[in-house]
Design brief:
There is one protein chain. This protein is 44% helix and 16% strand. It has 331 residues and is of the alpha/beta class. The strands form 2 sheets. A 5-stranded mixed sheet has the order 2-1-3-10-4, sandwiched between helices. The longest helix has 22 residues. It is globular and about 60 Å long.
Length: 331
């Protein structure tokens, strides 16, 4: 047998093994809660570099968007996992008896921010001296906590229509935003760098960007859930701290409005502000959730009048798939 033949046979063997492996993979789908972006990067990373495949899953990411309700798709059995919001969504599921369970918390900090003009507020509490543009969803959730915890008022709030122009024109205004979105737009289009106040740093202690599964999926396929969660955790370590170019390419392909500079800005903010890797994650690994933090946030929401005080929310999450320090060696 010649060297060329040996190489050819070896190549054919590798191709056959790869094909057999692909045939053995279990197909699962993961629906995100918005269009592809850096905040979804760890999941794309594990598709791109084969991390999910290593433990037996062929993962398809189904992007969300303004006309897409991927959570309803999961409830209907059309997708397997879903990217949830924060713990208020989990509490609501428990209240309504919906068998959706959070199995991982991607973000240790909620990326919601309040944005002001430079020098108009030195501290979060100083924002009480400004008119605040807050949307209806924010008014019903974190703004009620801001009222209860800091003494913000209903009167100083004006509805936010997702148009930053009124804020840009008035230094006496502050506005809601997401850490990696509105500050970037303002800096690029309005020509100044705004001051940013992360509500998580002010005490809004929810986890965010959870991974949700149906209770039946957890009961019937715990190994699959463990594979998906572990793969996602490893993906986030690799996306934040190692080569993420393949994942970025997938994100840009899935979302034509996304650009590399936006992705780079978002990654830098997630790192600098500890959105993914801080708090419990520093000791327990990315994805961490603890009963203590969830109970703390629940108590704050009860005190703010956002949620009832007699709710058994324990069915809305499980820590059985996290807190095992998976992937910490990748950092």
């Amino acid at each position: 047998m010649t060297l060329t033949q040996s190489i050819t046979f070896a190549s054919l063997a590798a191709m056959c093994a790869s094909t057999a492996m692909a045939q053995d993979l279990t197909p699962v789908s993961f629906g995100t809660n918005w269009l592809a972006q850096a905040e979804h990067g760890g999941f794309y990373q594990s598709v791109a570099d084969g991390t999910y495949a290593e433990c037996g899953l062929d993962v398809t990411i189904v992007p969300g968007g303004p006309q897409v309700n991927n959570r309803a798709m999961m409830l209907a059995g059309r997708i397997d996992y879903h990217m949830g919001g924060d713990l208020l969504q989990a509490f609501t599921a428990a209240k309504e008896g919906i068998p959706v369970v959070a199995v991982m918390a991607t973000f240790q900090k909620h990326p919601q921010v309040i944005i002001s003009h430079p020098g108009q507020a030195e501290t979060f509490e100083d924002l009480k001296g400004l008119t605040l543009l807050i949307g209806d969803n924010g008014f019903a959730s974190y703004y009620q906590w801001m009222i209860a915890e800091y003494g913000f008022t209903v009167e100083q709030r004006e509805p936010y229509t997702f148009n930053p122009a009124p804020f840009v024109a008035d230094k006496g205004m502050a506005m809601q935003g997401f850490l990696s979105s509105e500050p970037y737009v303002i800096e690029k289009e309005a020509g100044f760098v705004p001051d940013i106040f992360l509500i998580a740093d002010a005490g809004y202690s929810t986890y965010a960007t959870t991974v949700e599964a149906m209770a039946d999926t957890i009961a019937d396929h715990p190994e699959q859930v463990a594979c998906f969660v572990d793969g996602s955790i490893k993906g986030w370590y690799n996306y934040l701290y190692n080569d993420h170019s393949a994942a970025d390419a997938m994100i840009i392909e899935a979302n034509p409005d996304m650009t590399q500079d936006k992705i780079d800005f978002a990654i830098s903010k997630m790192l600098s502000e500890g959105i993914v890797d801080s708090g419990d994650a520093l000791e327990l690994g990315i994805g961490a959730m603890t009963d203590a933090k969830i109970g703390d946030f629940y108590g704050k929401m009860v005190e703010a009048g956002v949620i009832e005080g007699d709710l058994d929310y324990s069915s809305a999450y499980t820590t059985q798939f996290v807190n095992a320090k998976v992937g910490m060696d990748l950092h």
